[in-house]
Amino acid sequence: MTQSHVKLLVILFWCAAIAWWVVARPGPLQTEPLAAGTLPDGTATFWFKGNTHAHAKIEINGWSHGNAAPAEVVQWYHDHGYHFAAITDHNRWHGGGVEDVAGDDFLMLSGMEITSDHRYPGVTQDGQRRIHSTALGTKQPLNWTFEDPSVPYIIRQHVTDAENAGGLAVLNHPNYAFQVQFQNIIDAPELGLLEIVNAHPRANQEGHAGFRPSVETLWDELLSSGRQVWGVAADDAHDFGWSGRLMRRFGAAPPGGAWIMVRAPKLQREDILDALESGDFYASTGVILGDVDWRENELRVAVNPALTEAETSLYWVEAAATEVPSDDSHVVIEFIGVHGKRLHWTHDQYQASYSLPADQPYMRARVTYLKKKFSFFGADRARAFYAWTQPVFAVNESTQ
Ligand SMILES: [Zn+2]
Ligand SMILES: [Zn+2]
User: Fold this and answer.
1) How many CB atoms lie within 10 A of CB 348?
2) 65 Cα: distance to centroid of ligand 1 (angstroms)
3) What is the mean pLDDT of residues 85-92?
4) Neighbouring residues of 23: CB distance < 8 A, sequence distance ≥ 6
5) Domain at 33-284, CATH from 3.40.1000.10, 3.20.20.140, 3.40.50.880, 3.40.190.10
6) Which member of 42, 224, 230, 244 has the lowest number of beta carbons within 10 Å of its beta carbon?
7) pTM (2 decimals)?
8) Range with the poorest average pLDDT among 22-36, 72-86, 338-352
9) What b/e string do you get for 105-119 counting C-beta neighbours within 10 Å, with b at 16 or more?
10) Where are the domains of the chain?
11) 198 alpha carbon to ligand 1 midpoint, in Å?
């Protein structure tokens, strides 16, 4: 090889490296909350992006969980386009507050993950119950030992304790170790919020074919039984270092893969909690909605294509997506009714609407964005990104 060949190879290497950097670097971050419309009294509302479930390194008795200090966790969410977050470590309360991160106000809701496993320090009840729930926005830490080891008792106690302390409870990852069954939630009528997406690799989101339902199916069955349960998507992040994304398949849980978009007038604790309680939010793993509107028994959903494209190009969002076979990129909007029945769907349209049929007590919408992956070898694969609206329930004509 002559010297000029070596030079050419060096130049080609740097051209390829620069081209890769241009293609692979994250797109512009959406940091300003998107306008969401106005309330009947004229007050403007916005979509605030938030994560309700993340761990931090809070050492107690030589024992800790997440791998980043609380301040680093706050900084990560702030720097990656979120407006609010919570640190929800196992049985350790983080008081939250408005944090001044790099000159911006960023809302930290108080949080803890109430954890009833007796493998955790300080948990004394009998049994192998692994029931976890996020206590969000409470004014003080909550108890995590229970007199009765039955699953519904523990869930009910989580919810009641969180509400008595001025906050809300979200039942986390029901398929983790397959600890929570449909009947357990039926027997805990107080529960109003459920993690339908938990980005931790051990959350068993898809269930086991044939004998364990997916979490989305569990949600459909709860709604079909007449329960009003809102669906939350959250990170359950533990690993904030650079290697976390690479190690996902080996059990690491990096941040940025699943979140909620909350519609509220102001970025303040009361507004966010009110919207969560009334179901005015949607869950996402990449799809950004322009609008969700429920009026006169018609549900209208609009996708924001530019922001969805930008969001799904962020490497921390991309890294969490599952891959599916697909010939091309596609957008599908589905309207889903009782027992998960698909009532109506559109293909490659950015908005759709559907009127609730008379035989359906409720419906919900799900948007799927299959984004074709570049492949040197022509394999047809796409990353799958989603948004899930909350269910909407039939409104009696006479009360409209
Ligand atoms: Zn957990
Ligand atoms: Zn957790």
Assistant:
1) 10
2) 11
3) 93
4) none
5) 3.20.20.140
6) 42
7) 0.91
8) 22-36
9) ebbbbbbbbbbbbbe
10) 33-284, 296-400
11) 9
